[in-house]
Amino acid sequence: MSNEIRIGIIGCGWATENLHVPALRRVGCYRIVAVADTNRQRSESFAGRTGIAQWFNEPSQLIEHPDVEAVAVCVPPDHHVSLAIDALAVGKHVFIEKPMALTMEQADRLVAVAKLSRQKVLVGFNLRWHRLVQECRRMVNANAIGPLSAMRTTFTNPLLHKPTSPAWRKDRACGGGVIYDLAVHHFDLWRFLLCSEVQELSAWCRSDDWHDEAAVISARMANGILVSSVFAHGTVDDHQLELYGSKGKLQVSLYRHDGLQFFRHGENRLTTTFHRLAGMTRTLPAAIAALKNGGEIFSSYDAQWKHFYDCVRTGARIDCTVEDGLRATELSAAAVESAQMKRSINMNLSSVGRSYD
Length: 357
Ligand SMILES: NC(=O)c1ccc[n+]([C@@H]2O[C@H](COP(=O)([O-])OP(=O)(O)OC[C@H]3O[C@@H](n4cnc5c(N)ncnc54)[C@H](O)[C@@H]3O)[C@@H](O)[C@H]2O)c1
What we know:
Elements: E1 5-10, H1 14-27, E2 30-36, H2 40-50, E3 54-56, H3 59-63, E4 70-73, H4 80-89, E5 93-97, H5 104-116, E6 121-124, H6 131-141, E7 148-157, H7 178-194, E8 198-206, E9 214-221, E10 226-233, E11 238-245, E12 248-253, E13 260-264, H8 269-292, H9 296-314, H10 322-341, E14 345-346
Parallel strand pairs: 1-2, 1-4, 2-3, 4-5, 5-6, 7-10
Antiparallel strand pairs: 7-11, 8-9, 8-14, 9-10, 11-12, 12-13
């Protein structure tokens, strides 16, 4: 494709290898011109294995390279903001992995720089582009579940059991632990799906061998909806959302192609099963397309990269902005504070815009 975006990726770790390079290649409107990693051997061997022509061990060499027009920041979270700012400073578009920042000082700095820049910055909350999350959002906006009273979510994975887990994943100051790794995705989803900001938040955490190995976080949204979420490393892969409204319960299982199920208030089991089968039939073509990519989750990265392309090439409105990244950072910091201080945190909403619209 002649109008492809020439992208350089900083960080040659798990996410780049398993998520971004495969998605960028499937999407087909990008040319990966270079990679960089402070681990020189990793950068060189990754470029060789994946057929990427240029590799660097100094991120600034990639950022300043004239062939690179967009930079993907896929390094441990404590380096996200400084690299994104360096890339914007030399006129490059930026994709930045989650969590966008670890502190409000970092988040404020990036928001200020992005505001003054003509370049696009997309924050990688890929769940916004998950097919079932999008369907769930359509149903919420169409009032199909009725006015919502509560939402319950779960996001867990086996990370703690992997001997290959890098050291940063154990250290909250580097972005490790479930709050900055898993909960931050759901903080964004709470806002995205419930179209409201968090008013008050309480968190309980377990930190036995690592920081924040598990957490239970509850919140009251400004529109009154109550939320409760469970996050854990070191167990099975599980990813669920449940939304409770006056018309019924919507259950979304994010790792299943047929993971969207609506339990209508007052409906008998037979009818629920019929609706489920009808829904599966309707969504089968999309599910088959997603299966070819490895499942629904993997397709969300394709959709995210297609969106970044549209933002850069056609001026489409950015669907996940640095302001969204900042809100998620604020909630992560509040969760840490709540767990440490053993009290709930009231969020200051006076300066918050409605960026989830
Ligand atoms: N959106 C998602 O679903 C998702 C999934 C996994 C990881 N992530 C995010 O992606 C990022 C990377 O995660 P990962 O699992 O690939 O980590 P990783 O530890 O596997 O890889 C990180 C790589 O970055 C390199 N690196 C560290 N500091 C650097 C610097 N300053 N400049 C250049 N290279 C540097 C390391 O040498 C390593 O190769 C993290 O922010 C993580 O939160 C997102």
